[in-house]
Amino acid sequence: MTGHAPVLLEEVMDALCPRDGAIYVDGTFGGGGYSAALLARARCVVYAIDRDPEAIARGRALGESAEGRLVLIEGRFSEMEKLLGAEGIAGVDGVALDLGVSSFQIDEAARGFSFREDGPLDMRMEKAGPSAADAVNGLPEADLADILWNYGEERRARTVARAIVASRPITRTRELAEIVERALGPAARRQPIHPATRTFQALRIHVNDELGELARGLAAAERILRPSGRLAVVAFHSLEDRIVKRFLAERSGRAARGSRHAPERGHRREPTFRLVGRQPRLPGANEIHANARARSGRLRAAERTAAPAIEQGART
């Protein structure tokens, strides 16, 4: 498989420690980079999950060459317990998550993820449910501004939302990018990133519920990992990385503790994870030079303890 270079591949493999006889989950199969590396480094079995049907279709050649050691599953990684349960798997030895959008999705204009090539304003990973065009043309201005502020960290979210509403209907990626560029003015064009970058990121995250998916997926990994199993998560922007950092801090017992002025409430739970290595691990200069997408990658990794998983909603 070509067209997608997995970010921090060696660091992820180091964190997961592939071994013979183990079972691993590649929760974001994408271009298959992590799955291929796991299969090459140990006589293990990999269950590869992706919500994008095109990613699953691309993976069939790798599946055929893996002699039954790669099982491709179309679905969301947040549902890994149910998906693996249907395969008769109740526990695994490692989970890898490479968050965000894949190079394949960005490079294919018809998917509508990128403003660099004109295409339909879609952005749906599963090709089902409301699209980015539905959000752009149907949501109230205030809701659009909230999405741009919360998911894109766009400081001029209200200005952009107002311009979008005034320009409806909008159906093409380049059309939306030009609207945002005009709304933000000449100063935005002098910045290192394209003026529409934050808007497109925000809409993509909203359309695919990416942050909710991540929070549910981390909890699912905690439940399905066996003691000493490893979790490795590569994030590409601060919103994702913040969720992963907070989850692992809480689960490893490193979250802020109470003081005599603000004592802890309730029983302190036994840590369910132990942090592995430096947090976060960053790509080196050589990788960034070879793959510009790697520059924002952040890897956080942890090892599962024998403590019972924490129920969602319970206090740590």
Structure, described:
Strand 1 (23-26), helix 2 and strand 2 (45-50) form a beta-alpha-beta unit. The chain has two domains: 9-104 and 210-304, 3-Layer(aba) Sandwich (Rossmann fold); 114-208, Putative methyltransferase TM0872, insert domain (DNA polymerase, domain 1, Orthogonal Bundle), CATH 1.10.150. It has a seven-stranded mixed beta sheet with strand order 3-2-1-4-5-7-6, sandwiched between helices. It has helices at 9-16, 33-41, 53-58, 60-65, 80-85, 103-107, 132-138, 141-152, 157-166, 173-189, 197-208, 210-224, 238-251, 285-290; strands at residues 23-26, 45-50, 70-74, 92-98, 225-235, 273-275, 298-304. By secondary structure, the chain is of the alpha/beta class. It is built from 14 helices and seven strands.
Task: Give the tags.
single chain, 316 residues, alpha/beta, Rossmann fold, DNA polymerase, domain 1, 2 domains, seven-stranded mixed sheet, 14 helices, 7 strands, 42% helix, 14% strand
